Amino acid sequence: MQKLSTNQTPSLLRKMSYVAKDKDYDATGAPVSTKLHKIRITLTSSNVANLEKFSRDLVNRAKDKDLRVKGPVRLPTKVLKITTRKTVSYPAEASTASL
């Protein structure tokens, strides 16, 4: 393997360096960590218009305070109905004997 001088550094080694830019640093140079609180709110109602208005107001208030918001995520509200035919079940021997 060939030894590389400082001006012949391969591009792979240069690309692997990483500088964290999104962190805040205190006076000593140590990164300051901020605690992230995740909140999930589930709203249920039979009135969809009220739900939409309330969730829109909630999102707008959060964005006014510069909070990160994801949502709202709508869930399906359609009620599925499965109709079945109910019949009386007879044993096979009894039905053939009566014929």
TrEMBL record:
Task: Say if the entry is tagged with keyword Ribonucleoprotein.
Answer: yes
What's the source species for this entry? Thanatephorus cucumeris (strain AG1-IB / isolate 7/3/14)
Is Cytoplasm one of the keywords UniProt gives this record? no
User: This chain belongs to which protein, by name?
Assistant: 40S ribosomal protein S20
Which GO biological process categories is it annotated with? translation
Positions of the Small ribosomal subunit protein uS10 domain: 40-89
Q: Which UniProt keywords apply?
A: Ribonucleoprotein, Ribosomal protein
GO CC, sorted alphabetically, is: ribonucleoprotein complex; ribosome
Could you tell me the superkingdom of the organism this chain comes from? Eukaryota
InterPro entries hit by this protein: Ribosomal_uS10, Ribosomal_uS10_CS, Ribosomal_uS10_dom, Ribosomal_uS10_dom_sf
The GO terms describing molecular function are:
RNA binding; structural constituent of ribosome
Kindly give the Pfam families that the UniProt entry links to this protein. Ribosomal_S10
Please state the span of the N-terminal signal peptide per the UniProt entry: none
* Lineage, opening ranks: Eukaryota, Fungi, Dikarya, Basidiomycota, Agaricomycotina
Family per UniProt? Belongs to the universal ribosomal protein uS10 family.
